[in-house]
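Morning. Coffee machine broken again, so started the prediction first thing and wrote up yesterday's gels while waiting. Chain of 341 residues, entered below exactly as on the submission form.
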Amino acid sequence: MPIRKLRVSRILFMVLLLIWRWPSEKEVGAAEGRGKPEKSQLEVAIAATGPLYLPILVAQEAGYFGKHGLTVSINQVSASTSVQGLISGKIDIYQGGATAITGNLAGSDIIYVAASVDRSTLVLFGQKGLNFFESLRGKAVATTSPGAFGEIALRRSAKEHHLEVGKDIKLLYHRGPPEAFGTFLAGNADALIVTPPQSDVARSKGYPVIIDYYERGLKIIGPGTAVTREFFQKHPNTLRVFLMAYLDGVKRCIDDRLLADKINSKHSRTSDPQVLEENYQTGLKVWNKNMRVDPEAIRIVLEGSANPQAKDADPRRFYDNSIIEAINREYASQLFPGEVK
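Came back before lunch.
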């Protein structure tokens, strides 16, 4: 066959091959839609404000959710109400603590998909002159919702000191940290277990620290990103871009101290430089860059739970790391090179 005809034949063959492999409109649409959030508007509940929640607030106000195609409404809601909201579908994502585990134990299929913080910043304070845990016998301790981390940590410490919550120590439950702090300041509780910013204010007022749980190395998820398993299965791309935007907020908090302090001051309603400094340093210690859920952090909560079903529960039923592990490989490793793999 002449060379010219051979070349023409090859060209025709390549054209036919391209036509055969050219994607259909349906295939193009699927490819373009891959990775887009299945749901662009999200209702997100947070259990409190302060340094533990600063990255999500920065991500919101700096526009990172919008950058990833999301419109996010963030509201502070009590832990128990947040879990009820997840179950009813009125809340899509709950950034909070152990109440997600409590809800799961009660029969609602709620799981963690990321752990934005997994080192406890709880501090147990006593009224002035009350300096030791043993002194809490017969006393009342102000805390947040039933089943939240304050109760979990206090039960764990009571057991270590051969005391029993409900018998030797009375817990006073509240909607959130500000309300618990108010009860303590009014003298209507002998002790208080709380996180920043309330713990930083209590320190500044000279209340004695009975236990600093961060120094003790207590590892419990709080806040973590909790959703129903059904939401997780139906909206994987939505969760992916939400967590990517959250990590953008973490990086901005680290890189832009002025913005972090401004947003923290706005939401915590304090302009005290010492409190803002303590808040920021607390955040730097505990903001996770690798937000993979550690099953040991869940195990500690189960061991400290008053729920009889917690004793034999498998920690693996309370989380799914598949989305955050993909984000770590593809996104967090780029944001924090050398720190996340």
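The chain has a mean pLDDT of 89. Going to sketch it on the whiteboard this afternoon.
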